[in-house]
Design goal:
The chain has twelve helices and 13 strands. By secondary structure, it is of the alpha/beta class. It has a single domain, classed as Aldolase class I (TIM Barrel, Alpha-Beta Barrel), CATH 3.20.20. It binds phosphoenolpyruvate and manganese (II) ion. One of its GO terms (molecular function) is 3-deoxy-7-phosphoheptulonate synthase activity.
Length: about 425
């Protein structure tokens, strides 16, 4: 596969359309990036950001096209009901925590969760870490409680509460790339051959840099070399926005978070835009409804998308719809709500005869005290003890494995209902 844009060193960095398709891709990329883009930083000196983008266009990829293609195959199985997808890791990776001990702990907890899930069902498992690039965060407010520009992730600014530290700095994209390469090295070394990496497709100045032109599919597309799998977040899924248009151009498997405001009609629009060639597993719909809403909001979405004939992966994120503020001010989640949202998700799929294809969770292998509940009964007064997240609260190692046992039970129940094989229903309409 050839890098895109093609920029041979001996032409002074001029972009060359070596292949006829590159002109089309160039135009489509420029059109995508010209659309309104939510949640982007305002770089104080735009030329500096441009220079970093050009530098990163020459940088090494983090992942290989063959691994990404293998993940696409594995996700096709998950979409057909023949595999289960476990995705998880930090809410926000940080440069400071990009250490062997932290990364190994997170890989280890994912492996333990995967073991629990596999042993309960014999269903092949696909594991995707939120790792090696999960450095950009969407935020609900532009300023924090003290009136400073909000922390947007280590790839953009620093969490330190000073005006200088919070000023977006494009050089951080270079540091993010170096950190991601280091993390990927550890994933290869300690994660086995079957852990893939993912992050939120958020910061477009970063995402646009390490790309290949990919002519292998039904239409020429771009493959990101920055992660195997990318997802669009709840705050950047505007139909006319840059993130959806950029994801449409990618040949990587992609996800989109869908919160409780998403209607069945909107979900079908996402599916048609992001899976135009009806490729099983190309798109993962990540529902994050909250435990109180999932049983009501998800069924019409699953029904209408299934009727469209597209084979998506249904994945439950039981974290982001269940965030609450503890009495002592800590942003937290309760283990019981997390379990209950997954239970609701399984109930919906059991009712409709569809495959509950996976979970997407914020977990760490470290012994943090960020989420309430679980077997050791973390209470509000325990939260300050080891509350270390740079953004959202994560399940700790013990809570994560306990969650895996709950999910394994639900999955085993679903399997014993005879829903082991591919969905036998006729595929309707366009696909
Ligand atoms: C996240 O995954 O960390 C996140 C911000 O999720 P969402 O877009 O669903 O709110
Ligand atoms: Mn989060």
């Amino acid at each position: 596969m050839r890098r895109f844009p093609h920029r041979p060193a001996d032409t002074g960095g001029q972009i060359h359309d070596r292949h006829p398709e590159d002109g089309v891709l160039n135009r489509r990329l420029a059109e995508a990036l010209a659309r309104p883009a939510a949640q982007q930083p305002c770089w104080p000196v735009p030329e500096r950001a441009r220079a970093v983008v050009e530098q990163l266009q020459q940088a090494d990829p983090i992942v290989t096209p063959s691994d990404t293609a293998r993940l696409s195959d594995r996700l096709a199985s998950a979409a057909r009901g023949e595999a289960f997808l476990l995705q998880g890791g930090d809410c926000a990776e940080t440069f400071a925590d990009n250490t062997v001990s932290h990364l190994r702990a997170n890989l280890r907890v994912l492996a333990r969760m995967a073991d629990v899930l596999t042993h309960a069902t014999d269903l092949p498992l696909v594991t995707i870490a939120r790792m090696a690039g999960q450095y950009a965060k969407p935020r609900s407010n532009a300023v924090d409680a003290s009136g400073l520009p909000v922390y947007r992730g280590d790839i953009i600014n620093s969490a330190e509460p000073t005006p200088a530290a919070r000023t977006p700095d494009p050089q951080r994209m270079l540091r993010a790339h170096v950190n991601a390469a280091g993390a990927m090295e550890l994933v290869r070394r300690f994660g086995g051959s079957e852990v893939y990496v993912s992050h939120e497709l958020l910061l477009l100045d970063y995402e646009r840099t390490v790309l290949w032109a990919d002519d292998s599919g039904p239409e020429a597309r771009l493959m990101s070399g920055l992660a195997h799998f990318l997802w669009i977040g709840e705050r950047t899924r505007q139909l006319d926005g840059a993130h959806i248009a950029f994801a449409e151009l990618l040949s990587n498997p992609v996800g989109i978070k869908i919160g409780p405001s998403v209607t069945a009609e909107l979900a079908v629009e996402y599916v048609e835009r992001l899976d135009p060639h009806c490729t099983p597993g190309r798109l993962t719909l990540v529902s994050r409804m909250g435990n109180g809403l999932v049983r009501d909001v998800l069924p019409p979405i699953v029904e209408k998308v299934s009727a469209s004939g597209h084979q998506v992966i249904w994945q439950c994120d039981p974290m982001h719809g269940n965030t609450l503020q503890a009495g002592n001010g800590f942003k937290t989640r309760h283990f019981d709500d997390v379990v209950d949202e997954i239970a609701g998700f399984f109930e919906v799929h059991r009712e409709l005869g569809t495959h509950p294809g996976g979970i997407h969770v914020e977990v760490t292998g470290e012994d943090v005290t960020e989420c309430l509940g679980g077997a050791s009964g973390i209470g509000e007064r325990d939260l300050p003890t080891r509350y270390r997240t740079a953004c959202d609260p994560r399940l700790n190692a013990e809570q994560s494995v306990e969650l895996a046992y709950f999910v394994a039970e639900m999955l085993a129940g679903w399997r014993s209902d005879g829903r082991a094989g591919p969905d036998g229903r006729d595929l309707a309409d366009s696909c």
